[in-house]
Amino acid sequence: MHFKLNNKTNIIILTLILLYCGSVYFLLKNDIFKQADRLILDKFTELKAINPAPQDIIIIDIDDQTLDTFGEWPWSRELFATFLEKIAAQNPKQIGLDIVFPNEKSALGDSQLSQIIQTNHICLATAFDYNTENKSKEIGQIKKLYPYSPIYIEANGVIGNFENLTQKSKCLGHISPIIDSDGKIRRIPTWVNFHSISTPNLALAMALSQKLIIPKSRFNKTTETIPFNREISSWIVVPAQAILYEQIPSHIFENKWILIGSSALGLGDRVSTPINPWLPGVIIHAELLANFLEPEKSEWNVSHYLPVALTITMGLIILFSFLSNNSISGITIALFSIAAWLYFSWLAWINGTNINPSLVPINLILLLAFLIPYQWFKANQQNSLITDLFKDYLAPNLVDKLISNPENSLTPQKRVITVLFADIEGFTAISQNNSPQLTADLAQKALMVMTDCAQKYDATIDKYIGDELMAFWNAPFEQPNHADLAIKTALEILQQIEVFNQNNPGFPTLKMRIGISTGEVIVGNLGTPFRSSYTAIGYTVNKAHELVDKSKLLNTQILICKNTYLQASKPLLNNIICHEQP
Question: For tag attachment on the chain, is the N or C end more exposed, with fewer CB atoms within 10 Å?
Fold first, then answer.
């Protein structure tokens, strides 16, 4: 040894490090450590997602192409009943719906749907709200189908199915995972209680309905970790339109587990998960169901004190190496310990045990972050002086410029934008009363007029939905006057459509309905490995679309929200109606 423990400096260092390592365990409750654990476990989950999906689980996807063909959601109950009937006719083992029907629609359609639910192995979905800060709400109904569970999460609100449908159901499961503080979904309650009625998650409900043998350990967990064991592309996925068009083999669903959900961006059933930032929610229930079908794995019995003991032990060894002026050995030991611990944590994780994988790496890295500068300072004071001079010589902005990376505008991010939807009023009637060629020609020309107007005011053209245009401002580039630009575009569209009507007497006269909303959304390159696009999602988008419909009720061609009204220049608001009084 090249140091003396009676040396005052070394004793102080040793005391500080021991106190630091001893207090680390109590700091685990700090959110920084929790986030670090999540990052590592998310990476473990991503690396583990290599197993092929079970061949007896089939996902039926109500995708964008299906909605383009059969109309926007929600469909008529008659159409959805026909859709379910075609699936049930193949005698699947169980059908699970990642869809809720809270309200009655039509007597005939509701009756057909209820009859199909009653006579087939179909599990209905229920959505719960766990946020106690929200006002308690109850939409639709739930039903007591299962014994009371003493281990549960209490719900503050529920969105169930309409009464007749609920009463006819023989299987009910919830589709409400837990959203962590970083916005990702990793867990789902095993049971949820609301008004003393216990409801299992959808996958568990389907398994119980088919009387699968489920280990008692699964019932003793308040929440289940969603395994995410499989690549998205490995699941068997059948587009919904293939069923409605009867383009599938007659035996494909026989004795299979069926899950019906949606990957359509407009339906908003996408969630952020460790393996994908925008995963169709139905995959969660497929993963859980697949886990029920696999043999139970025995979990590792590892003490949670192990990382604390290892941290202190390795910290002392590294400390002695540095105090012996053998920093290379200390760094090597630290890196080896970090790598070994991460590998051990990985093995424990794939065997069902979480042992706080970030604890050892964070503490050893922080220890190195303290010791390396300390030894560098003590052994290289002259070099430190030169370095300080060199640092003072370089301008901070030049340093920042060299080390910084340009921001990627395609990366999904939260942003305040203004969204515009422009729709041709009564276009369905126009299409029914005219030839397909004239209808198509009219839609193309009208959309070109709308597009030219939007581009004139620097809009981002999001998409065309039939005869409807969606555009937005303030993304990907900043546009401080985005509300003004949207209103100017709306006024320009009305003016140019009027010109179009005058110049095209052979076409039906067009009348526009326009909705404009301003607020925070998530905007960026969103989608799945199969399909992605630069778009915006969130309440503001839905609000703008709703304003188009509400403009008909208020008999106005342009209807804006309160936020747009407050941000827009007042001269532009003449004769513009705001849906909410500012």
Answer: N
Task: Give tens-digit pLDDT for 337-382.
Answer: 888 888 888 888 777 777 778 878 887 887 787 777 777 666 555 3
Reported as half-sphere exposure (CB side, CA atoms, 13 A), residue 350 has a value of: 14
Report how far residue 97's alpha carbon sits from residue 284's, in angstroms, rounded to the nearest whole number: 13
Q: Check: CB of residue 255 under 8 Å from CB of residue 56.
A: yes
Q: Calculate the alpha carbon distances from 194 to 99, 166, 309, 328 in Å.
A: 19, 15, 43, 59
Length of the chain as a residue count: 582
Q: Which residues lie below 8 Å from residue 323, measured CB to CB, with a gap of 6+?
A: 1, 2, 3, 10, 13
Give the long-range contacts of residues 494-500, CB within 8 A, separation 24 or more: 494/557, 494/558, 496/449, 496/452, 496/453, 497/446, 497/449, 497/450, 500/445, 500/446, 500/449
Local structure of residue 266 (DSSP, 8 states):
G
- Angle, alpha carbons 332-338-343 (nearest 5°): 125
Radius of gyration of the chain (CA): 30
Contact between residue 512 and residue 493 where contact means Cβ atoms under 8 Å apart? yes
- Residue pair 159/140 in contact (Cβ under 8 Å)? The answer is yes
- Paired strand residues for 416: 520
For residue 134 the two structure tokens come to 């929200």
Longest dimension (CA), the chain: 101
**Which residue from 109, 145, 154 is spatially nearest to 124, judged by alpha carbons?**
145
Q: Per-residue b/e over 427-454, b at no fewer than 16 CB within 10 Å?
A: beebbeeeeeeebeebbeebbebbbebb
CB atoms within 10 A of CB 149: 16
Closest to 289 in 3D by CA, of 257, 243, 246: 257
Helical axes 436-456 vs 482-503, angle rounded to 10°:
140
Tell whether omega for the bond before 476 is within 30 degrees of 0, i.e. cis. Answer: yes
Q: How confident is the model at residue 400 (pLDDT cuts 50, 70, 90)?
A: very low
Supply the DSSP symbol for 339: H
pLDDT band at residue 43 using 50, 70 and 90 as cut-offs:
confident
Query: Judging by beta carbons within 10 Å of its beta carbon (0-12, 13-18, 19+), is residue 115 exposed, middle or buried?
Result: middle
- The predicted-structure confidence for 144-199, as pLDDT tens digits, reads as follows 998 888 888 999 999 999 999 999 999 999 999 998 888 889 899 999 999 889 99
Q: Which two structure tokens, joined as six digits, stand for 581? A: 């009084």
What are the structure tokens assigned to 15, written together? 């005391």
